[in-house]
Design goal:
By secondary structure, the protein is an alpha+beta fold. It is built from four helices and seven strands; from the N terminus they run βααββββββαα. It has a single domain, classed as Thiol Ester Dehydrase, Chain A. The radius of gyration is 17 Å and the shape is elongated.
Length: 153
């Protein structure tokens, strides 16, 4: 097993306009928050996203699921942790965790697929992307597929 797993996290302040009549963040905004965190993670790990597109790769969301635990409120500092759960041939899965302080606000799973920007067809993940993301692979998520059905003694 490789060394310590790294997890990228991005913090953002909840704006008043993102809250609903109940005074909590409207549920639809969590995917926007996730997208901001993914963009910042990409910028930190790879630099300019447009450069990847120019090299013939793009990344699209194929599936997204968010489980709501508690509502974040106006002016709270929301941290979005971005553990990478799976790196497939053409896809990757991130399991975002949204927290305010120690409170779990929401969590979920987002599956992305690499595509050719011109044809929109699936495309194998670029080797340089895989090598940079591997240290961010969550050990539990990675082992889950290989160990399904097995039990610890």
């Amino acid at each position: 097993m490789p060394g310590m797993t790294e997890t990228f996290a991005h913090r953002l302040r909840v704006r008043y306009s993102e809250c609903d009549q109940q005074g909590v963040v409207f549920n639809g905004h969590y995917l926007f928050f996730y997208d901001v965190a993914l963009t910042e993670m990409w910028r930190e790990l790879f630099g300019d996203y447009a450069q990847m597109v120019e090299q013939g790769y793009d990344l699209v969301v194929a599936e997204a699921r968010i489980r709501f635990r508690e509502g974040a409120r106006f002016d709270e500092l929301l941290e979005v942790s971005m553990p990478v759960a799976h790196l497939g041939t053409t896809s990757m899965v991130v399991r975002p965790v949204f927290r305010v302080g120690g409170r779990l606000i929401a969590d979920g799973e987002v599956r992305h697929v690499f595509i050719d920007p011109a044809s929109k067809a699936k495309k194998e993940m670029p080797p340089q992307v895989r090598s940079v993301l591997e240290p961010y692979l969550d050990g539990a998520g990675q082992a889950a597929g290989a160990a399904s059905g097995s039990q610890s003694p």
